[in-house]
Amino acid sequence: MRFLNSFNKFIEKRMAFVTPACLLIGVLFADSLSHVLFIVPYVFAFMTFCGSLGSRFGDLKRVFHHPVPLIVSLFVIHLVVPLLANIAGSLLFPGHPYAVTGMVLEFVVPNAVVSSMWVSIYRGSVPFTLSIILIDTLLAPFLVPFSLHHFVGSNVQVNTAAMMEELLLMVAVPAVLAMALNQFSGGTLKQTLSPKLAPFGKIALMIVVAVNSSKVAPFIKHMNCFLFAVTGAMLVIAASGYAIGWACALLLRRKRELIVSMTYACGMRNISAGAVIAAAYFPAEVMFPVMIGTLFQQVLAAFYAQLLVKFYGTGEETT
């Protein structure tokens, strides 16, 4: 158990390097990993379960007492940033509907579970972050297909019903199950089972990234000007998500802890969920913009962490 705890802490501190490394492994061993793509939804469901064990229904109740930051964050996550991605993709890459679809898909998926780690480290509002992760996760089966149909449905066929069913089984059901178990245990599972499963959740994340990366191996092995341009556009849009969340928190005149939380809520995306959807319902071209985000999402998270510390301190003085 001590080894697993050390492993978990080791991975958490090096997420900025772990996910790109898993992407590289997926590309290098694409032929072998492509044969196990079928396990990804099951591994992802387990990862969602692990990530939701720290939440209880009471967390949602407290956040709903002051719902404005939550509503604004969801608005940014599912409308503002996807709209920005759709406009940028349509202007920069006309005639490439699959690239635009991948860009939009990357930014309509729910907030990343790993954002809670960054918020915890930099002393943001953990209850707010866990609540938005949970609510966004529960809404994903409905919001993701709807958003894709709205933004790119006229150019790319979207199997809305099948996508909703898979997101329910892969995301919503494991999250509700984990929450219910934690609620009925009086929160003891957060202290007992959650730490034990945390290392396996990280392993699951690494498996999902590596296996899904096998589908984009041909593109990464043969990078060209077009793919570099898509990568650059994704980097700028991803960085904008953090900045928009930060700006919204300032406009709402929130304190430091919510500024941190809203920055990560609006900036980080569940790339693994996007990759699973892309692999299941779209051609391989859609996967590239989604998976390329693994190269810089954690790096951007670390960059914004340093900016937050520079402007607002570490937050230790308030504890």
UniProtKB/TrEMBL annotation:
- The answer to keyword Transmembrane helix applying to this record is yes
What's the protein's topology in the membrane?
A: Multi-pass membrane protein
Tell me yes or no: is Transmembrane helix among this UniProt entry's keywords: yes
What does the UniProt keyword field contain?
Answer: Membrane, Transmembrane, Transmembrane helix
- Where is the protein localized? Membrane
Which Gene Ontology CC terms are recorded?
membrane
A Pfam family in this protein?
SBF
Annotated membrane-spanning segments are 70-93, 99-121, 128-147, 167-185, 226-252, 264-282
Top-level taxon:
Bacteria
Q: Which InterPro entries match?
A: BilAc:Na_symport/Acr3, Bilac:Na_transpt, Na+/solute_symporter_sf
Name of the molecule in the record: Sodium bile acid symporter family protein
Organism whose genome encodes this protein: Caproiciproducens galactitolivorans
